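Before a colleague's protein record goes any further, I have to sign it off. What it holds is a sequence and that sequence's fold in token form. My question to you is simply how this chain folds and whether the tokens agree. Thanks in advance; the entry in question is below:
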Amino acid sequence: MDEGKKIYGKANLAEVVATIPPDPETEARHRAQILIKTDTIRVVVVSMVEGGELQEHTAPGPITIHSIEGTIEVNVEGESHILDAGELISLAPGVRHAVRCAKDGYFLLTIGVFLRDPDPGGNSTDTTTYDETFSE
């Protein structure tokens, strides 16, 4: 990547998901398309059919899973989290999780590659709120 590059990539999600519809005939029952890939971030759109599953695994960096359409179940270390369209969950690096599709659809997966030890989640002593952080 060129040093000083300010835009890593740009995508129209509606157009991308139209090119990778969930396919019930595939054994994996899901498809994926990488949208952005750099040394610090990965952004992937994944389509799944009902019953499709990504087996339990971990990610090397922090992740977000954002349901775009349909319903997915994210199992985080034995605890189930249902995500309907528009909802997202964020996980710390190394957290064991699985993803199962409860209703045909798509989700956006973002994987960060950290260059420092991350906050393990929920233990921050920083009292700055989301609104304070992004209103500057």
The longest strand covers residues 97-112. The two ends are 29 Å apart (CA to CA). The domain at 32-115 is CATH 2.60.120.10 (Jelly Rolls). Residues 127-136 have pLDDT under 50 and may be disordered.
